[in-house]
Design goal:
The complex is a heterodimer of chains A (300) and B (274).
Chain A: H1 13-38, H2 44-68, E1 80-81, E2 88-89, H3 96-121, H4 132-136, H5 139-165, H6 178-198, H7 205-236, H8 239-242, H9 247-266, H10 270-275, H11 278-297
Antiparallel strand pairs in A: 1-2
Helix pairs in contact in A: 1-2, 1-5, 1-6, 1-11, 2-3, 2-6, 3-5, 5-6, 6-7, 6-11, 7-9, 9-11
Chain B: E1 5-10, H1 19-28, E2 54-59, E3 74-79, H2 88-92, E4 98-100, E5 106-108, H3 118-122, E6 129-130, E7 137-138, H4 144-148, H5 154-158, E8 164-168, H6 169-185, E9 192-194, E10 206-210, H7 230-259, H8 264-273
Parallel strand pairs in B: 1-10
Antiparallel strand pairs in B: 1-8, 2-3, 4-5, 6-7, 9-10
The chains are: A mainly alpha (300), B alpha+beta (274).
Chain lengths: 300, 274
Amino acid sequence: MAEHFVKPPNWEWYILGYFFLAGLAGGSYAIAAILRLWGSPRDGAIARIGFLIAFPLVIVCPILLTLDLGQPGRFFHMLVSTTPGQSGLMFKYWSPMSVGSWALLIFGFFAFISFLEALALEQRPQAPGGTAPVSVLSGGFGRAFTFVGLLLGLFIASYTGVLLSVSNQPIWSDTWTLGGLFLASALSGSAALLSWLARRRRDTESTERNLQEADGYFALLELVLIVIFFITLAATGTIGRALAGPWLLIWVLVLASLIPPLLSLAGRGGRAASTAAVVPVIVLIGVLLMRFVVIFSAQM
Amino acid sequence: MAEPVGFFTDTSICIGCKACEVACKEWNQLPGNAPKFLDSFDNTGKLDSQNWRHVQFHDRVPEAPTVVGNGQAWLLMSDVCKHCQHASCLEVCPTGAIVRTEFDTVFIQQDVCNGCRDCISACPYGVIGFSEQTGTVHKCTFCYDRLQAGKMPACAQACPTQSIQFGPLSEMQKRADARMATLQAQGSTQAQLYGRDDKVYGGLNAFFLLMDKPEVYGLPNQQNAVLPRRNNVGGYLGILVTAALGMVAGVVAFRQRLDNGTGPRQAASAGRKS
């Protein structure tokens, strides 16, 4: 049985906001990239929406992270060594926070280029860069660029779970599932968000239902990972802490948020349930609550 | 590189006077604490950004009269940063602020730390504390400035019973072995060395002679003394599998429509929009 004598790092609201937005940014980019790479031409509009929202979301992330620092002015110490006599870049592959800092920077570049391209494709030539990004991202290079961006998006949406696990905190360090769990949840929330945004456009009808189907698969994946999460905690003896007090209720709400996409996948949601505007909202609340309960239950 | 230094804290002769706490605060100019009445004689509570030594008091006075206490009427221990050979805090620090010094101690560079607090989540001993005043994290420096001047750390110098001993690490280990042999010869069955060898975090430069199990003093036992990086492989593998399944799910969801472009789902979708 695991015994912990650590203190909590007091990662709270800024970090919750970061985990939520990074999940949606990475997930939205990943889904948009999947649509771009393996979807049909009719999926282009949703792919553009995904690229259009990923960059604004990811821009907020470093702001939240910087605000959470005790010395916000030293945010760049994550990237550049300032130790006297050891100048150079700062990178530790075994520290997820170090890897994540670089990944966020690089993903931000990919998200920015794809954002410019999507803006141009939306026939807004007044956008910065004009139509140049469209030319750059056409053909084989564009597909390779999108594929690398897809991998980065998946990483951004998930590494935060590994960051928590690579510690000695109760719950976080007692399971290997958090990275996968955060990723499944991020993909589910992003599919729901894109599905909700698609409802506002007339050229996305054919893709919207498929997003809901994808959301169902992602929710199923998340459900399986939640079960494994609790099994791993039971094996280390920290499941009681994870479900103590209000946390059990919040986990019930998280599970409840999976029901609409799962029903939709099973074909039992009916048209009303699958198309209701409230479903994406429920899913997104579930994404937020899952991160909330993981972050706070370990630190209380 | 200078010779590795060490603390040997012999809890069997600690009298709980807290001279180490006071000396540490005075030398390092750490702020005082508001008075608190905690369990027993403890009014410090825990190690944090302004308490780099903490004398623990564990009441083991038997309820029933007894003839042999075996040194356990009270368990006292002057706790401190362990300056681990394999330091969890140093491992995760993303800025390189936490370094190993020429004295083989673990040190936080205050001008490099940006207050991310990853080290707090990693330290298995709950040693490091965050200061709202400086926006950085703090812990015992092993009196780095005194070491550079050839002096012993303030706590060791102040300790009136030599419960805290300081010197070259190898010499401290020899003294600990000798003390253990003495206690065992006197019939002590509970005495044990913690961090003397490499079984706990590769060895501790601040190691202890304990009079009970490590857990009693808030120290993880050998089984639980694990490094944060152990979870890298499992965590990233979990991501890899989930990402693969997620991508397959996404491709399946969007490819299915291509095979059935006029199927009922499209009809339903069209119906909703009409």
